[in-house]
Amino acid sequence: MADLIVLADGYARDGGDDSRVGSSVSLIRDGDAAVIVDPGLVRSRAAILDPLSQAGLRAEDVTDVVISHHHPDHTLNVALFPNARLEDHWAWYRDDLWVSREAEGFAVSPNVTLMETPGHTAQDISTVVRTDDGIVVCTHLWWMADGPAEDPYAPDPRLVHDNRARVLDLQPALIVPGHGPAFAITADTPR
Question: Are 136 and 4 in contact (CB under 8 A)?
Fold first, then answer.
């Protein structure tokens, strides 16, 4: 089974002219694979690289980077990982190679697969990780544990709810949301 470590808890703080947003950034180790999910905006690159180093890895050791969608707050730091294959909603890339593929069911590694979950954007994907403690899903279907119940940027809000239901059908032990600490599903979790 894979191991998942959240390297940086995301956040979204509306402060008018001084708004701050940080992406939840995760490391998944699965055999020879070292996968980073959503290396976007963080207070400094050290917020990603220091915990990665504490986990015994260098940026050059990362084999794959998955981005949930193409917004800069989830993609800004993808180039920190020079040897990684980049995964998105319709292809994977390395150097000048572009390999088109469906995201749904794509195996990044034996215990890490992608799931097409449009909602926040039409191209959203979620990363499904099988761990000894159960399934963990890295997704932007939730910004944080309490929602928002309705994504203010969703082009089709119905898709958010439909894909939350698909993720919940997996009975995940944890959700790593786009902009907050990992959480377990409760009765209060927005559906």
Answer: yes
User: What span, in angstroms and rounded, lies between the C-alpha atoms of 187 and 175?
Assistant: 14
Q: Which CATH class is domain 3-176?
A: alpha beta
Enter the pTM of the model: 0.96
The DSSP bridge pattern shows strands 112-116 and 125-131 to be antiparallel
Handedness of CA 147, 153, 154, 157 (dihedral sign): positive
Short-list 182, 39, 66, CA closest to 123:
66
The three-state secondary structure class of 78 is helix
The stretches of the chain forming alpha helices (DSSP H) are 46-54, 72-75, 157-169
pLDDT tens by residue, 68-79: 999 999 999 999
Confidence at residue 34, expressed as pLDDT on a 0 to 100 scale: 98
What average pLDDT does the structure give for the chain?
96
Domain ranges for the chain, please list them: 3-176
First-residue to last-residue Cα distance in the chain: 28
- Tens digit of each residue's pLDDT (9 = 90 or more) over 146-169: 989 999 999 999 999 999 999 999
The CA distance from 177 to 6, in Å, is 11
Is the distance from CB of 149 to CB of 190 less than 8 angstroms?
Answer: yes
